[in-house]
Design a protein that fits this description.
About 50% of the residues lie in helices and about 20% in strands. The protein has six helices and seven strands, in the order ααβαββαββααββ. The longest helix is centred in the first third of the chain and has 29 residues.
Length: about 220
């Protein structure tokens, strides 16, 4: 708990320091009081808000008190929606996207908002670490009594050490710009559904993350 509090304080300090310094600069006349400065400040508040939301989700999930709003859902459709959400950003970076799901996949009871959040998080991570000319994608399939969601990329890959610690709170791989909570939250959300999540990756050979959800 002591380590967690220290990590939380560290992560909150960065956006708060930026906001405080920029506001002081505006008041002192160091920065012009224009829309660009206000827009950058707003971006920092969004980072702070997302971090607080992530911490709340993580706390509820790890305490076993996260409430899921389950309903019958088409996981293939959720995956396609998640891919569409990142397609524009991916195109601007020169990264191809794809979504694959066979017809007739069974409808399963999940919290569609949370599963969509998991897929979106994994795609965002994949895009962040994939250079122009590469690709990211999602494949959904049924294997026995399991629905598998496979998120893959052709990016820079991860070292064995990073793979081993990928789900640790606040763990950041080389060059990561996130808070180090995304994969931890994804694992907790998947486990709350009775599923599992695994990672396979090699440096310079891309990464594949597989989410397995029970189909019963």
């Amino acid at each position: 708990r002591r380590d967690l509090m220290a990590d939380v304080a560290h992560e909150l300090r960065t956006p708060l320091t930026v906001i405080q310094g920029r506001l002081e600069g505006l008041l002192d006349g160091v920065y012009p009081r224009d829309d660009r400065q206000l827009g950058e400040l707003l971006d920092e508040t969004r980072i702070l808000s997302r971090l607080i939301d992530d911490l709340r989700t993580l706390a509820l999930a790890e305490a076993g008190t996260l409430t899921l709003q389950k309903e019958p859902a088409d996981v293939g459709a959720l995956a396609a929606d998640a891919v569409r959400a990142v397609a524009s950003d991916a195109s601007a970076r020169g990264v191809a996207t794809a979504a694959e799901a066979p017809p007739g996949l069974p409808i399963i009871d999940v919290d569609p908002v949370r599963i969509r959040e998991v897929i979106g998080n994994l795609l965002t991570n994949a895009l962040r670490h994939t250079s122009a000319g590469g690709s990211i994608g999602v494949r959904v399939r049924q294997i026995a009594k399991t629905i598998e969601i496979e998120v893959r990329d052709t990016g820079e890959g991860m070292s064995p050490e990073d793979v081993a610690h990928a789900f640790d709170r606040f763990h950041k791989g080389r060059g990561s710009r996130g808070a180090g909570l995304g994969l931890t939250i994804a694992r907790n959300l998947v486990r709350a559904h009775g599923g599992e999540i695994t990672i396979a990756s090699e440096p310079k050979r891309g990464t594949t993350v597989v989410v397995a959800l029970p189909n019963s």
